[in-house]
Design a protein that fits this description.
The chain has 386 residues and is of the alpha/beta class. It has twelve helices and eleven strands. The strands form two sheets. Strands 3-2-1-4-5-6-11 form a seven-stranded parallel beta sheet, with helices on both faces. A four-stranded mixed beta sheet has the order 8-7-9-10. It is globular. The two termini are 22 Å apart. Bound molecules: nicotinamide-adenine-dinucleotide.
């Protein structure tokens, strides 16, 4: 991870090693996922931690000319003011980051924190949508210029919003940021279930932008497992009678999802993989319960009632216990690298081959195995263009 521009190289966007200095602009830059991504990137780039969980560090991506982890420069927007080194210390106290890590990567955390600008709209902000989009786009332009970046990818990792009411005259914050990304000429990734580029008023703008984009809602736990198991039932001709699930989680995400409207936005994506793979949505509810005592640790139970030969009734039950930010952060880094490289290679529009990473992808197959095949095909396509 670089902390400042190199003034000695003839191409100012290149690092001394010849890599392209690539910006990662995180919306929600002081949240748990963002802090874990920034700290984790610095630790892995310095060789302090292994690349566990980073798909882009595996063999199929070796020659795809992705930006190196050490060439990523972080910044972003947040409405919170707690500095990144403090957030990292809090995550260490919760057991999310290893002891000693915040101190080992303090310079990188401080550099990223210095590049965070106030998010919005804050209560009492009287600016209209266009003014807010302009202000956010201006922050992005300044980030790219100040750090002499070849490009910056905008990644939304802010708190989940409720789905906007139909006919509302204001864009939700996630769509203001997404529109700012387009205005600043930046590729865009939506790691959350929030609306982002999916707002009807942005569809045309996105299509005309000539930029690559991907989303939405990172697939890190329960839905990841569902995208493996649902094709198994379909391919073995075992009808699923009901698929029920419960999630217990704390942290900022748990608190945001305590709002039934935000939870509904999340659950819509989780249900999609079942509907797409099984042909119809089976019976069964999905619950998300906020348990602050769990912090960033999530427990997800699934109960699948299915039918066998001659109508015999059977059940599969699964328990997933994961650290949410440790699951999400490597995927955020993967997506930033892949989307930056897609932009460099001249790819435009929805990157359907990145469906492997999302609950509610922009097209492509729905089972994880098929999505992985599409992703490695994408790696090969990037390799051919290098
Ligand atoms: N961790 C996972 O496994 C996972 C998987 C899929 C999706 N996600 C999504 O990632 C997002 C981040 O999760 P988290 O655990 O880091 O949450 P978090 O609560 O720790 O962080 C969210 C951050 O967004 C900021 N924010 C809120 N409104 C904002 C605005 N208008 N502008 C700028 N910043 C704003 C908050 O201040 C906070 O710092 C959530 O939407 C979550 O649903 C996480």
């Amino acid at each position: 991870m670089t902390t400042g521009p190199d003034t000695t190289h003839p191409d100012p966007t290149r690092t001394p090693g010849g890599g392209l200095r690539t910006g990662v602009w995180l919306i929600g830059a002081r949240g748990s996922v963002a802090t874990t991504a920034v700290a984790g990137c610095a630790a892995v780039a310095a060789g302090l931690q292994p690349t566990t969980g980073m798909v882009t560090e595996t063999a199929p991506f070796a020659d795809s000319a992705l930006p190196a982890l050490g060439d990523l420069v972080f910044g972003g927007h947040d409405t919170a003011t707690t500095p990144l080194p403090k957030r990292a210390e809090a995550l260490t106290a919760e057991g999310v980051l290893p002891h000693g890590l915040p101190d080992a990567v303090r310079a990188e955390l401080t550099a990223a924190d210095d590049a965070i600008r106030p998010g919005g709209p804050q209560p009492g902000d009287t600016r209209g949508d266009d003014e807010l989009i302009d202000a956010f786009a201006h922050d992005l332009d300044a980030f790219v210029r100040t750090h002499r970046l070849a490009r910056a990818v905008v990644v939304n990792v802010a708190s989940t919003e409720p789905a906007p009411a139909a006919g509302g005259d204001r864009l939700p914050p996630s769509s203001l940021y997404a529109s700012a990304a387009l205005r600043a000429g930046c590729p865009y990734v939506n790691f959350t279930p929030s609306t982002g580029l999916h707002h009807p008023r942005l569809r045309g703008e996105a299509a005309r932008s000539g930029l690559p984009y991907a989303g939405r809602d990172g697939k890190t736990g329960q839905t990841l497992l569902r995208s493996v198991l649902a094709p198994m039932f379909a391919q073995r001709a075992l009808p699923v009678r009901a698929w029920s699930g419960t999630n217990l989680l704390g942290g900022g995400d748990g608190a945001a999802l305590a709002d039934p409207a935000a939870a509904a936005a999340k659950n819509a994506g989780k249900a999609r993989v079942l509907a797409d793979t099984l042909g119809e949505l089976p019976d069964g509810r999905l619950h998300i319960d906020n348990v602050p005592a769990l912090g960033d640790w999530k427990t997800a139970w699934d109960h699948v009632a299915f039918e066998g030969f001659l109508g015999s009734r059977m059940v599969l039950q699964t328990i997933w216990q994961g650290c949410d930010s440790a699951l999400a952060a490597p995927l955020v880094l993967d997506l930033a690298r892949l989307t930056a490289r897609a932009h460099e290679a001249g790819l435009t529009g929805p990157l359907t081959e990145l469906g492997f990473y999302f609950k509610d992808p922009d097209g492509g197959p729905s089972g994880l195995a098929d999505q992985y095949t599409a992703l490695t095909g994408f790696a090969a396509r990037l390799r051919e263009r290098s």
